[in-house]
Design goal:
Rossmann fold; 6 strands; alpha/beta
Length: 288
């Protein structure tokens, strides 16, 4: 227990998807990048910077309702200081959606002005929506379009093909499959993506992941787990704390022993669902 897992997950279909995006980028005016507000840097695919370097950019901090509000504001400032328009959203409840169209107009004002000078009026902005698996990209598109036009699922890798979605006269979206990148330079990146559910749980050792998760959040949110599970006292290690979660929630083996695997999965599921409170796993100060 306590060793950092080295996580890499790059299924073959992601290589094909990246090649397709390199072709599709020629067709679009704007890159709308969906990131998870709890890990805005770790959930950004560094390949997107290269792919979209000559395009207008918007970063949407999705699941902002699950992240620490003060840290959300720090991230908005961080991105805007780098010339990237940034907005907090919650796709499930459409929070922040009323500001998106105006941000698209601001991000693409040069393109709209070029069209106007050439006598092209009201040509819709064509935007590519990008994001790694499970950051809520399809939920965003469905909520924004107001109908189920992109498949959604809480498993990474549900979006398969390319599809254009006409939202209104001003905006068309190109949905793309969620892609990761072949190798995480920092092991912490892989861990954070595993915590939020962007890595397939089936390839992970959940007990180790939960142990690392407890260690990670204990720095900034030392009491979040104890409060959530009504646990008191101090523990010699994280394993003992997870045992207590198992006992509190009835995660037991046949002999009445705590089921650590089940409790580990429960802990991570509760975090992903926001049941431990509003928690951010990284802030701008954590960037090297």
């Amino acid at each position: 227990m306590g060793n950092e897992q080295i996580i890499n997950w790059y299924p073959g279909h992601m290589t094909k998807a990246k090649r397709q995006m390199q072709e599709d980028i020629k067709l679009i005016d704007l890159v709308i990048e969906i990131v998870d507000a709890r890990v805005p840097i770790s959930s950004r695919n560094p390949d997107i910077d290269e792919l979209g370097k000559n395009k207008s950019r918007i970063v949407l901090l999705n699941k902002a309702d699950l992240a620490d509000q003060n840290v959300n504001q720090a991230w908005t400032t961080y991105f805007e200081s780098r010339g990237i328009i940034c907005l907090e959203i919650d796709s499930r409840n459409r929070a922040g959606f009323n500001k998106i169209q105006n941000m698209v107009t601001v991000a693409c004002k040069e393109k709209i002005e070029r069209d106007r000078k050439r006598g092209i009026l009201n040509r819709p902005v064509r935007a590519m929506v990008v994001g790694i698996p499970n950051v809520g990209k399809s939920t965003f598109i469905n909520s924004y379009a107001g109908k189920a036009c992109a498949k959604t699922g809480n498993k990474p890798g549900v979006t398969k093909g390319k599809q254009w979605i006409k939202l209104n006269k001003q905006l068309e979206l190109l949905d793309t499959p969620g892609i990761l990148w072949p190798k995480f330079d920092d092991p912490q990146t892989g861990l954070k993506l595993a915590y939020i559910g962007s890595i397939n749980d089936n390839i992970l050792v959940m007990e180790e992941l939960a142990d690392n998760f407890v260690k990670h959040i204990s720095k900034s949110y030392p009491n979040a787990i104890k409060i959530s599970y009504n646990i008191e006292g101090e523990f010699e290690n994280n394993h003992r704390l997870i045992e207590q979660i198992a006992l509190k929630r009835g995660c037991l083996l046949k002999a009445g022993e705590p089921d650590i695997t089940k409790a580990s999965r429960l802990l991570l599921d509760d975090f992903r669902a926001g049941k431990l409170g509003r928690i951010s796993l990284e802030g701008p100060d954590d960037i090297n």
